[in-house]
Amino acid sequence: MSKTLLITGGAGFIGSAVIRHLIADSDHRVVNVDCLTYAGNLESLASVADDPRYTFERVDIRDAAEVGRLFRQYRPDGIMHLAAESHVDRSIDGPAEFIQTNIVGTYTLLEAARNYWSGLDADKKAGFRFHHISTDEVYGSLGDSGLFTEDTCYQPNSPYSASKASSDHLVRAWHHTYGLPVVTTNCSNNYGPYHFPEKLIPLMILNCLEAKPLPVYGDGRQIRDWLYVEDHARALVRVLLEGVPGETYNIGGHNERKNIEVVHLLCDLLEEMRPDKPAGVAHYRDLITYVADRPGHDVRYAIDASKIQRELGWVPTETFETGMRKTVRWYLDNEAWWKRVRDGSYRGERLGLGN
Asked: What's the start-to-end Cα distance of the chain, in Å?
């Protein structure tokens, strides 16, 4: 049965992947709600922009009047809430925006959704879902062993992760206090096409292509669990449609890698796929430069994704190697996209020094 879905943050990296998946692989109607901050890019949705099942609304989720209008106008069957300030380094330099968007914005959406949901008839009410998309960073830093599960205590260590932890708690409270049917997902680090180049993988690819230093924080031994964004998009839609209200599902790629291993793999893939290096570069690995670590840098994240596999039947289809090869290929083939991004508000400068 076709549904109407509000997708907040749909012009962002993960949100645009979700929308492309929904339009290509389902009959659902999509309303993309995005205020187009620096990381929002409608060019990431060019392939679906003219589809009759797709609509774009430029709305700030902190604007209660406009958010209320969206619910009244489109009468959605569900909401997938991805809109967020998401870069740790930026949260260190300017935490206020993270508090406003991630906490106040989530509260505004929850209240609008609750008011709308409470007026639905019984069938529509039972089928409605508020899907809140969060991060594994709310759990803090792991030791050398163990995995984050859905029962792991929250211990956020950055302004970004603290703001996302706060929004997770609000979503839980609106379910337990008001009965709003919510589901929450906490994911590991995403990578793939259309990724804004402030994050590790696209930044390293583009710096290689431009013969710029590859800044590796500290000793580069911080460990992350990497998830290909299109695998994540499939998981998010599965949780929205089949997840149990009140439940949390962790989504991970089963791909733990040290940051320095990620950079080495990227350099090696580019040696193979773009051997005609910029002038003055003998080997891409020669560009690696170790820099002062990020303040409060968590050492290790790793997700136990067994619950979503066991209960909803989702598993990632990409290995880290196949996903990385696809990612490098995409950036090599889509120079026009990333050059326009680089000409805008972000040019690869170092952020997150706490200045």
From this structure: 51
